Amino acid sequence: MTSLSEIKTLAQNFVTDARNVLSRSKSEREICAALQKIGSLLLQSGDSSDFKDLLKTTDLPDHDMDLARKQIRESHYVHFLNYLCNILNFEWYSNFGRSQEGNRLFNSFFLKGRPEDALLVLCSVIQNSSPSFKQKKCVLLLEEFFHQHQLQMMLCSMCDISPGSATCLSTSPCSSRSMALDGQRSQVLTVLVTIPDRIANVMKKDCSDFFYPDHFIPMVAKEILKTLHYVHEKLSKSENASLQFVSELIGRLCIQGYTERLFGILLPQLLKLTSSNFIWCRIANRILAGAPDRSLEVILEYLLRHCPWYGYVARLLSDAVLTNAKINFLLTNKFLLLRHFADVIVPQNLIGYLASSPSRRHLIVKVLRSVLNTWGDRSAVKHTSHSQHAYLTMVIVISVGHLNEEEKAKHKGDLTTMLMGGVQAHLESPILRVRRLGMVTAEIMAKTLDPNGPKLAFEYKEDEESQLLWSLVNPPEDPGLDSLIKGIDQVAIESDMEMSNGTEDRVECRVSDAPNQEQEKEEELDSDDEFEPYDMSHDTEAAKVKVPVYIRDCIDGLTARDAPELTEASLKVAEKLIRAKPDDLKDVCSQFVAILLHLEDQYNTENFRFLRHSAMVALSVNCPIETSKYLTGEFYNRNYNIRQRMDILEVLAAAAQELSKPSEDPGPASKSSGIVNPQEHKAKESQEENWRDIVQKRIESKTRRFAKGPSKPAPNPAINRFAPVAGHFFFPLLKSYDSKLNTMDLLGNDFLLLGRLMYTLGIIMYAAQNTPICRQMAVSLLDFIWSLRYHTEQYVRQSLMFAVSMVTLSVPAHLLVTDLQSDILECRHWLQDILEKDPEPECKALAAQTLLVIDSTVSKELKGKI
Description:
By secondary structure, this protein is mainly α.
């Protein structure tokens, strides 16, 4: 009887003879015969009778014969593939001529063998070869590899478990009978997830569209879906399967950044399949919860964003939050306290998932306590962003809405105590939005925890944010899957189980991607849009009132009572009338700016704040002394609220910037020429410029120059309109900053107004650069900065650093190193102190930038003197 070792020796000799024929022969018939015989030995599709004929032995039992075939394939298949790639070139491949048989036999070694080995060999050859016939042929083979669903066959083989294994849906990588080494398994995963990058790096502009991520990743997703159907059929027959490789593949693809493309195909199908099948719920749970830890955050974030209801999240994850420590940390800590999301569906899905099962409900109270502690912390209220704080508020409201009566009665006292402390911290905030969050949360929790108790009510103006919070109290209902599955490619699975002697179960899958063309034709026939609509984008409504033409009529219109249309028309035309510079503008500018400052949006006018601001800026530009005198004087008046004082500062800053820019008024000739159509004027200018450019280029191309003059023409001098009036904008704002009024305390609670004042002074300082009064303004501003340098509020410290940088950029450099040397050195020491000791990273970054500006300006001046 022939032994297994003798069979291996015969196989080795046969492979050697075949390789000699392939390398030496030029005959197409001999090459095809050698490929056919070696294929019967190494390929999985080879017939067992051909195998026995090749080795000239039939005295072994069938079981030993199958074992011999398997060992021979494992020993010789990869080496023979590498040999075929090494001898592959245009000259050798031309031996096949136009015969399709030779091409089919050659391709079969890569398309009918072990798919994981063929994949690794093809990718290795493509990456390590230079542009040539061999490289292009291997790329085509790799594309055909995926077209013939070899990836699905490989994934299905990875999911098979040997009969000795006792656990269904095993997650142990050692149980997969098609993987001999974990190293090869990891290598296959790495190659699969990086194929788009590998092919693009090698092929560059010649890369096929098939390997672009928008095409390749959906194809992989569909192959994964077919594999999951294969596993479902095995589990339905009580057979074992492993989803470890599929789960790792999904996780690695998500780490590579393909989450949207991958789950755009997987998620709708999984939601549909898990709706009525418990086995599919187990499959979904294993592939999601079994993904690598570093990919879980990306996967969970996508699920929470795109699942239309928290019940679907519960189907997909089951009790993974209790069994997986990483998922528990993400869902009960990181996604709640360390991150925030703009989509309301995320906290709804997260909290709803925790509340949807009795085994997970204890996490609701735990999450609510931790979020309430963070939400009510005074430091968090003061230093976290509003979006983060609003997200925490939504989590609290949603969690309270999911509490049942027993949980409310048990934890009402503790939750109320924690709530009251947090509400007090919110009410102390100077920011209206933060105070409103505290008030709305208190009302919601008081009403929810104790519906029959005393009602809690605050006075605040409702906005979209508060309305959204009230709507989140009631848990959402199931919206259905129609909106999610609509338009998604349907994957129809047809199973054709073929049981034969020792052969594996195979699943043939069919993907139907074609849209319903008949339905589209019917929709086109039913369309009634046969006529194009008129373009009405430039139409204007007929004015119901007479628009003011004179400045005094405009003032009368703004002060008119019970005439909303006249008031709106006057406000919309106010800036235009002011820019026209009427003769009596100076006489009425103080009255006009006072009316605008006290004007309120009683009639809900569109763009009210913008129109009012633009008119006040126009007044400040055209009558700077009169307007600035009034505005700066009213800034420290007691009869104004914070919003009006902010408006004064914004107007002064905008007017200073506009006055400091060179005047764009046309010259006398153009003024006297009458009204010109702007479009015709621009067309003429562009034609003249094009003509001049062409002539200038021709002159330059035919002119020889031995010495060139200045490359750019000297700039035209322009009068700085802000220089004479800079002091009127600047110094009155410094006179009473330390005075405490009933309606304003700059050094106390009104730190936001103080910071805005510093920003305004910095802007005015920069607008007055290179003016005679600039030095005096810098000295006064630096003294003001020095008195506030250790302010406790982050916003004020940032505004002080902005003002220092504006002084550095505005004052001539030679004055910084002479007259202001001591002040600048003190500022440098203060900035270095902030850089080392300030707890806020934003302040440290701004201090570093300000130090860079100071050092750069001073070093340039000192180098110039040397």
